[in-house]
């Protein structure tokens, strides 16, 4: 078993979630959902939530848990799909697990490796591939999660082993479906009834704000995207404003913060200022974000 890389005082507990047949249908999909290999789901139009998943994720997030998806995607190693295909499928999952503009998923980690890969650089028993603990340990480091207070829910034995290998207590690694727990809704009941559950958050205090770039797709550049993400997390750490979720696409960044609207707007104003300075220095004075945005909607504030 690998040790938790974080100190026991790390405040935030998580629920780590397998994707296929835990959050979304897979085994019961029609054959046309798998153009290459049965079980390799990379077509977004076939992504459908399992019964009770939206409600279960909402209840867990409202109770203070950070929700993180950890999924093996050996279809990339097998040459059936690209990373872009997997990300498009995961983006569809993110959109289905968004309530009133609030993303319920903090992050999605995917392991593209497989020991029998046809893609040479992905032919490995990589520690990210479950039952390896790599995705869970990476999320714990990057999102500042307390594994001792976290849970894992999956439908296969390798999911359970991954959680245990990462340092999550065996009784907190729940197997749904064939494991005797009837889906994520029942698993959420067990988690929320546990005496050491996460401290409840006040959902009313969560604010979601989006910055939209002034040019077409500047965040398609990997360095720009990484800089924006790193700046957002650094500002959250420096100011103490809890960052619940951060989503980036090619032209925008959306932050969900455990703060009221004014504090969230201040957070995004600081993110705009610091990343504009960096971007302008690299691009001849051109700002990344325009100085004024359209009026904010009630569910999707824009700083």
For the record, the count of structural domains works out to: 2
Mean pLDDT: 82
Largest sheet: 5 strands, parallel
Query: How many strand segments?
Result: 10
How many helices in DSSP terms? 7
Give the topology string: H per helix, E per strand.
EHEHEEEHEHEHEHEEH
Q: What is the multimeric organization of the chains shown?
A: single chain
CATH topology heading of the largest domain: Rossmann fold
Q: Which sequence of strands runs across the widest sheet?
A: 5-2-1-6-7
* Relative helix content: 25-40%
User: Which percent band covers the strand fraction?
Assistant: 15-25%
CATH architecture of the largest domain: 3-Layer(aba) Sandwich
Features:
three-stranded antiparallel sheet; alpha/beta; 303 residues; Alpha-Beta Plaits; Rossmann fold; five-stranded parallel sheet; 2 domains; 16% strand; 31% helix
Question: How would you sum up this structure, described in words?
Answer:
- The chain is α/β, with parallel strands linked by helices and 303 residues long.
- The chain folds into two domains: 14-193, HAD superfamily/HAD-like (Rossmann fold), CATH 3.40.50; 203-282, Transposase IS200-like (Alpha-Beta Plaits).
- The chain has helices at 53-62, 83-96, 134-143, 157-165, 183-193, 222-239, 261-282, and strands spanning 14-17, 66-72, 98-99, 102-103, 105-111, 151-154, 173-175, 206-212, 243-248, 252-258.
- α6 (222-239) packs across α7.
- It starts with 13 loop residues before the first strand and ends in a 21-residue tail after the last helix.
